[in-house]
Write a structure and sequence with these properties.
The protein has 264 residues and is mainly alpha-helical. The protein is 73% helix and 0% strand. The chain has a single domain, classed as Orthogonal Bundle (MetI-like fold). It is found in: Cell membrane.
């Protein structure tokens, strides 16, 4: 059974009305794109900060230190995102807790950042635990304290190993910024999805959603490829023929040092 030409035309017009897409793009780019980036960037920064702290707590040998971090991670990974956004963006102001006044951006960043932190904490934990314990022992043998050794030696290696997973979480944060529409937005505060939704309600046509989807893809696909490229460069090292960083001059060794011992 073949579809009729009229049905095919209706399908194309519903999703690919190029005139309507062209009319929607200017608002998406001038207003929606900036607001989406603002929410996503704020949530990513907040999420990474929370995740680093939570990951360190999860790695503690003391159960009473691990317990709060484990509860935080399990709760906010288990709750649907929409519930967390409503609890933070609607529940806190209703309870008289208004750290951001009536500005929905602050509540959106806080909600998405809390969720992102729960997922990123597990990513960081797995990356840090994948680093050989000899790295920490070697750093401690050089006189570093535990926290300094973790900060300068172990954590950077662990984060480098989980860059692709972090990229996936950052892409998720960008997409989840669309839920800010639940909190109500004024003119000038609308993000990509909210603008597209307004146009769909006005025209009864889904083409503005396609335009918004293209904008999201323009953000998420380059981010994914950039992080994958960065991960590949870090694993492979400098390319052949590239100018290496200037090395420190070798100091002359004493006969004892040359034999593998220490001079006295």
């Amino acid at each position: 059974m073949t579809s009729s030409p009229l049905a095919s035309d209706a399908l194309v017009n519903t999703f690919f009305n190029w005139d309507l897409i062209a009319q929607t793009f200017p608002r998406l780019i001038t207003e929606g794109l900036l607001n989406t980036l603002t929410i996503a960037a704020g949530a990513i920064v907040l999420g990474v900060a929370i995740a680093l702290l939570a990951a360190m707590l999860l790695l503690s040998k003391r159960w009473w230190v691990r317990l709060p971090a484990r509860l935080y991670v399990d709760v906010f990974r288990g709750l649907p995102v929409i519930i967390t956004v409503m609890l933070v963006g609607v529940g806190l102001p209703a309870a008289g807790i208004r750290p951001f006044g009536t500005n929905p951006f602050g509540y959106a960043i806080l909600a998405i950042g809390i969720i992102s932190g729960a997922y990123t904490a597990e990513i960081f934990r797995s990356g840090i635990q994948s680093v050989d314990t000899g790295q920490l022992q070697a750093a401690r043998s050089l006189g570093m304290g535990y926290l300094k050794a973790m900060r300068l030696v172990v954590v950077p290696q662990g984060i480098r190993r989980v860059l692709p997973a972090m990229a996936g979480q950052f892409v998720k944060d960008i997409k989840e910024s669309s839920l800010v529409y639940l909190l109500g937005l004024a003119v000038g505060q609308r993000e990509l999805y909210f603008i597209a939704q307004e146009e769909v309600a006005r025209t009864y046509n889904s083409s503005p959603l396609i335009a918004a989807g293209l904008c999201y893809l323009a953000l998420t696909i380059p981010l994914t490829y950039f992080v994958n490229y960065l991960d590949r460069r870090l694993r492979e090292g400098p390319r052949p023929g590239s100018t290496p960083a200037p090395a420190e001059p070798d100091l002359p060794k004493t006969p004892v040092q040359a034999a593998g011992g220490e001079s006295r």
